[in-house]
């Protein structure tokens, strides 16, 4: 769990209400091609925004592990707890990788040290988490959320197909690389904005198929959708096969994620009131 003493909710950062700021609620989607340390930086920067509340996170690939750590940290220690949990998780990744050859066992061990699943599955958890995995036999994408969330499901989402054996869950075999836009639905329908963190800017360029207010099949439910991508995703691509690496490399990627998130926030994207039609247009940075 958290290496430091758990932080009580009353010790968390000052809330937006206390500062007289209007709180903005967002859902986050973490795509499987976003490098893990870049995702860490984006999440770390968002934690600085006291008037920005994360309601739900849908994650695929290695980011599923980060999403679980993020949700756990928020549940036990607020913003400070989430930041500490993420930093401790990445230190474990960086240190333990040099001692283990079995990637799946390593990921499972680190995850078990980093989270308490009961905290994430609890109805009082401030973040609704969903992780995507692919059925190794049928290629169908499944989203695990609520009572279906398990260590197995999170590890499966982070398992690279064909390089590691799939993870068995209730008689079926699953591994990662799930496309977030093939999922049945996003975790939350309450967030007024969707933020997608992705590796390449061209992945989500198709507009909403039906821009009417009655569109029931619109995955984003006609909420404003924003995208943050890593302008140097090609430089980080080889690391997808080894998300653990030198600590300096990891923190450089984290800082790049923080910078991209800061640039997105500087545009004040969460304060734009939009019609349902305009909400279907997607923004990129």
Structure description:
Helix content is 34%, strand content 18%. The chain is an alpha/beta fold and 285 residues long. Strands 1, 2, 3, 4, 5, 6, 7, 8 and 9 form a nine-stranded mixed β-sheet that branches.
What is the straight-line distance between the termini?
A: 34 Å
Low-confidence stretches: 3-21, 203-221, 236-240, 273-284
Radius of gyration: 18 Å
Q: Roughly how much helix do the residues carry, as a percent range?
A: 25-40%
Sheet with the most strands, sense and barrel status: 9 strands, mixed
* Morphology call: globular
**Helix and strand element order:** EHEHHHEEHEEEEHHHE
What structural class do you assign from the helix and strand content?
alpha/beta
In short:
With 285 residues, this protein is α/β, with parallel strands linked by helices. The chain has eight helices and nine strands.
